[in-house]
Amino acid sequence: MQGGDLHGRRAAKGARRSTAALLDAIFPDDLAERSALGARAAEIDVQNVLADAVRRLVSRTAAHSACAWMPREAGGLLAAAGYQRDGQPPAPDPEAFGPLCSLTRATDLGERGLDPALGRLSLLSGLTAAVAVRPNLGNERSATLAVLLLGGPDDRRGEVRPRTLAALDEIGSGLCGPLTTAGAVARLDRLDDAVRRLDRMAALGDLTTEIVHEVRNPLVSIKTFLQLLPDRLEDPEFHGDFREVVNGEVARLERLIDTVLRHAGPRAEQDPGEAADVAEALEAVGQLLAHRARERGVVIAQQIGTGGCGVAMPHDALRQVLLNLILNALEATPAGGRVTLSADSRANSEGRVVELTVDDQGSGIPDEHRERVFEAFYSTRNGQPGGLGLAISRRLVEEAGGTIDIGDAPQGGARFHVRLPGRPLQR
Q1: Are residues 45 and 176 in the same domain?
Q2: Residue 287 domain-assigned (yes or no)
Q3: Lowest-confidence region among 211-215, 245-249, 261-265
Q4: pTM value?
Q5: Average pLDDT of the segment spanning 55-69
Q6: Residue 96 lies in a domain
Q7: What is the band of 3 on the pLDDT scale with cuts at 50, 70, 90?
Q8: Among 286, 206, 214, 281, which Cα is nearest to 253's?
Q9: Does 127 fall in a domain?
Q10: What is the number of domains present in the chain?
Q11: Do 67 and 176 share a domain, yes or no?
Q12: Maximum distance among all Cα pairs of the chain, rounded to whole angstroms
């Protein structure tokens, strides 16, 4: 194996580990484990209730053997509680459990007319009486929560004392409430786990879509450069300008990937001294979208008067906001129209504020839609799906301490107005 191949494989393996760490950190796959723990905890609560019932049953009837069996949700039977004066309590009998569940009252297992499986159970185990615990004991179709059984020399098969049957009925009826409550709590816990899993899956979908969206925008410049390259091969000015833009966008992709991988650890705070150059960002985005504007027959005009003031947000974030807003304006403006970008700064009580506006000449955005357009995937264009551009833009602006809103452009159409804290540029 060549050294370069080995290095490449190690790097790829490291990237896979980093990506896995990212997903584990953001969406830890502990829900199944927690759900299983919750199910076991609920099962233990039920067993405690049934164990107390068996103790009371033994105390009142002087039974030599008593047990509580219950169905597991996953299938099979659970010996929830048991007592045996000598030895081990009888194990659950799957063949007899169905007939036991059909009992509508405390029953002597020696009664005539019972299912033969109950007679065999009694002969093999020494258990002589049983009651099915369910919310409506007289309705054999209601779900059985558990079965209580007992046996002993004072309650032989076919000769079980009436007071023993009465105690079985009383204790069995008293179990309905606690067992129903424990089952409901367990179901709510499982539902809560399912909702958390769905929430995390939805968040993962949003994260993935946002990453894809942010990756797609830098690809626009690379695609544009490749499309124009055959016709501008001999144009050195084109080579210089677009090569700089493309190199910047490739570096931006690299930073995006690095950012995604770094999310596996604590999020780094923004450099408090970082300032993005508005004029530089507008020029770069204008070059990036010039070809698309020409294809649509739309003019992009710029009016910049920030006086050398930057904004308190990362360079990539500012470009992302401008790119999203201008792409939105290009989509809205018909052929022959104009998209106007302007930037200015003014002083206020807390320092300087930079105001950015993007005006289009489309049909505008009605008042009732102006808040909703910032929702992910919402669109005012009938039959066309919305995207994440405006939702991402608002998040980035608000994270920088700014605001973004929508108004009417002077020449018709919509105006997106962004206000960001100003910050001196470091030259």
Answers
A1: yes
A2: yes
A3: 261-265
A4: 0.44
A5: 93
A6: yes
A7: very low
A8: 214
A9: yes
A10: 2
A11: yes
A12: 109
Same domain? For 279 and 185 the reply is no
Q: What's the average model confidence in pLDDT over 381-386?
A: 54
Q: Pick left, alpha or beta for residue 349 (phi over 0 → left; psi -120 to 50 → alpha; otherwise beta).
A: alpha
Which of 192, 218, 243 delimits the end of a domain?
A: 192
pLDDT digits (tens, 9 = 90+) for 303-336: 887 767 789 888 888 988 898 899 889 988 999 9
Are 343 and 303 in contact, with CB atoms under 8 Å apart?
Answer: yes
Residues 174 and 280 in one domain: no
Distance CA 166, CA 58 (A): 13
Q: Does 364 map to a domain?
A: yes
Q: Is residue 279 located within the same domain as residue 401?
A: yes
Asked if 49 and 159 sit in the same domain, the reply is: yes
Residue with tokens 């504020």: 353
For the domain that residue 353 is a member of, what is the CATH number? 3.30.565.10
Q: Which of 140, 169, 192 is the last residue of a domain?
A: 192
Q: Say how far apart CA 172 and CA 180 lie, in whole Å.
A: 12
- Is pLDDT above 60 for 10? no
**Token duo for residue 322:** 């401008």
pLDDT digit string, tens, across residues 130-188? 999 887 544 445 678 889 999 999 999 999 999 999 999 999 888 877 776 665 555 55
Other CB atoms within a 10 A radius of the CB of residue 284 amount to 22
CATH code for position 66: 3.30.450.40
Q: Which two tokens stand for residue 181?
A: 């409550």
pLDDT score at 310:
86
The pair of three-digit structure tokens given for residue 277, joined into one six-digit string? 């150059």
- CA within 13 Å, CB half, 164: 28
- DSSP-assigned states of every residue in 186-219: HHHHHHHHHHHHHHHHHHHHHHHHHHHHHHHHHH
Confidence of residue 391 (pLDDT cuts 50, 70, 90): confident
* 182 and 280 both lie in a single domain: no
Q: What tens digit of pLDDT does each residue of 333-357 get?
A: 999 999 999 999 888 777 789 999 9
Task: Answer yes or no: do 276 and 420 share one domain.
Answer: yes
DSSP code for 333: S
Strand 338-348 and strand 299-305: the pairing is parallel
Domain extent at residue 37: 32-192
In this prediction, residue 264 carries a pLDDT of 41
Angle in degrees, 0-180, between the axes of helices 3-26 and 162-228, rounded to the nearest 10: 130
